[in-house]
Amino acid sequence: MKSWFKDGVLRAVLRNAGYLGSTKLIGAVLGLGALICAGRGMTTAEFGTLMLIHTYALGAGALTKFQSWQMILRYGAPALQRGDWKLPEAAIRFGFGLDIASGTIGMTLAMIVLPFFGHWFGITQNHTLIALAYCTLIPTMSCATPTGVLRLMDRFDLIAGQQIVTPLLRAVGAVVSWAFSLGFPFFVLSWYIADIMGDMILWVLTAQELRQHKMLKALRPSLIEAPAKLPGVWNFVWLTNLNTTLDACWSPVGNLIVGGMLGPSAAGLYKISSTLLDSAVKPARMLEKGFYPEIMRLDPSSRQPWQLALRTGLLSGAIGLGVVLVILIGGQPFIGLFGPRYAAAATLMAIMSPALVISMTGFPLESLLYMAGRLKAVLIAQVISVTLYMGTLVIMAQTFGLYGAGIAYVAGTFLLTLLSLIPTILSYVRRQHIVSPTIATAKGVPSSSGN
Questions:
Q1: H or E element: which one contains 104?
Q2: Under a CB-based contact definition with an 8 Å cutoff, are residues 168 and 30 in contact?
Q3: Contact 264, 48 (CB under 8 A)
Q4: What GO cellular component entries does it have (predicted)?
Q5: 298 close to 160: Cβ distance less than 8 angstroms
C-alpha cells in the first residue's frame, strides 16, 4: 500500500479530495446544527414539510438537469492536456446553455405540477404558495457549469471555500429562527436564502477564474454553434441526463414517496437519516470529485486509470467500514440531540448504514464507464436498479413502514453497484479499443461515446 502513494495522480486525487473534504466536514457539522435547530424549533409535521418542500425542488431540478460538469471535463480535460483551449470554451458555452434551458424547464414544470399533485408528496394546500416560491431556486440548483469550470481549471480550493457558504448561512438562519421562535416561514426563508447565496458566490468565482484565463466569452450560452464542435456530445448529455433523472429517485424522490405514503413526520425521520448518511458518505463524494477530472486526463487504453480506480475504491470502502461502526455505536446518542421525538431515526440509520460501504467502495465505477464511453451501460444499470428499488420501496414501506424503506434502500444500492461492476470489468478487458472523444476528433476516427 505504501507504493500506492508514489503515484502522482493518486496524490492529486487525495489532495483535491482533502481540499473539498476539509470544508465539507465543517459544512456537514453546520448543516446538522441547522437540522437540530429546525427539529427543535418546529413540530415534527412542520419539520417534515420543510424537508419535503426542499426535496421537491431538489427532485424537480434533478429530474431535468444535465450533468454539464461531466461533459465539460470529458471534452475539456483531454484538450487542455494538448494545449487546445477552443474545445473547453465550446464545452463551457454548451454547458451553460444546457443549464439555463433545463433549469427554466424544471422550474416551470415543478410549479405547474405542484398545485395539482403536491398532496401526493405530503405538501398540503396550506403550504402550496411557500413551496411554489421555493421552486424559483430550481434554475440555480440545476447549474453544474460553474463546478465543471473550476474542476477543469484545477481550482478545487475555490470550490472548497464556496461549499461552506450555504450550510453556514443556513445554520445562522436556523439558530436565529429557533432562538426567537420565528416559526415555520422563517425556517423556509433561511433555507432559501442560504441556497441562492451559495449558488451566486459560485458563479462569481467561476467568472473571476475565466477572466484570469481570458475566457469570459465562454459564458455566452450556446445550444447550436458550440455543440457542433464537440463530437457525440448530444448523445453524451442525453444519456447522462437520463442517468441523473433516475439517480434522483434514490434520495429526493425516495423521500417524497416516503412522505406521500407514511406522512410528513415519517418523511422528516427519513430525511434526518438520509442526511446523516449523506454526510457520512462525503469522503467518497470528495474522492469522486477529485477522481473524475484526473482519469479524464489519462489514457483509457492504459492500466493507469483502472488501477487508480481500484486503489481509491478500496481506500474509500475502508473509510466506509469505519463510518458504519461509528454509526452503530454513536448513532442513538447523536440522534438524541434532535429530541426524543426523532429516536426512530437512529434505528433507521443503522438499517441503512450498510449501503455506505457498498456505495463508497463502488464510487469509481460510474466515472470509469463514462471514461470508457459506456454511457448506455450506466443507464441500463440505473434503469434496472431504480425500477426494482421503487417497487421494493413501495412494498416494504407498506409492509414494514419506515424501516422497510431503509431495507429497500440498501438492496437497491447493492443492485446498482453490481450492475455497474459487470460492464466495468468488460471495459477493462477491452480497454485497448477505447478512444478519447477529443483524440478521436484529432485523428478523424469515430468516438466511442455512448457505446
A1: helix 86-117
A2: yes
A3: yes
A4: plasma membrane
A5: no
Question: For 330, how many CA atoms within 13 A lie in the half-sphere containing its CB?
Answer: 9
What whole-number distance in Å separates Cα of residue 141 and Cα of residue 135? 10
CA distance linking residue 264 with residue 284, whole number of Å: 30
How many angstroms separate the CA atoms of 383 and 214, rounded?
Answer: 42
The pLDDT tens digits for 225-271 are 989 889 889 988 888 888 877 776 677 677 778 888 888 788 778 87
Report the candidate in 393, 415, 413, 414 with the shortest Cα–Cα distance to residue 404: 393
**Integer CA distances (angstroms), 351 to 269, 327, 347, 355, 414, in order:** 13, 10, 6, 9, 14
What is the enclosing helix (H) or strand (E) of 341? Answer: none
431 neighbors 301 (Cβ within 8 angstroms) = yes
Neighbouring CB atoms inside 10 A of 239's CB total 20
Q: Which residues contact 278 (CB under 8 A, 6 or more apart)?
A: 251
- What are the extents of the domains in the chain? 2-443
Quick count: other Cβ atoms within 10 Å of Cβ 425? 12
Q: Please say whether the beta carbons of 19 and 156 come within 8 A.
A: yes
More confident residue, 242 or 200: 200
Cα 10 from chain centroid?
Answer: 22
Assess whether pLDDT exceeds 50 at residue 64: yes
pTM, full prediction:
0.72
d(CA 39, CA 33): 10
Residue located via cell numbers 463510518: 323
CA nearest to 267, candidates 75, 39, 112, 7: 39
Distance (Å, rounded) from C-alpha 370 to C-alpha 449?
A: 8
Tell me the Ramachandran region of residue 252: left when phi exceeds 0, alpha when psi lies from -120 to 50, beta otherwise: alpha
Average pLDDT, stretch 169-185?
A: 91
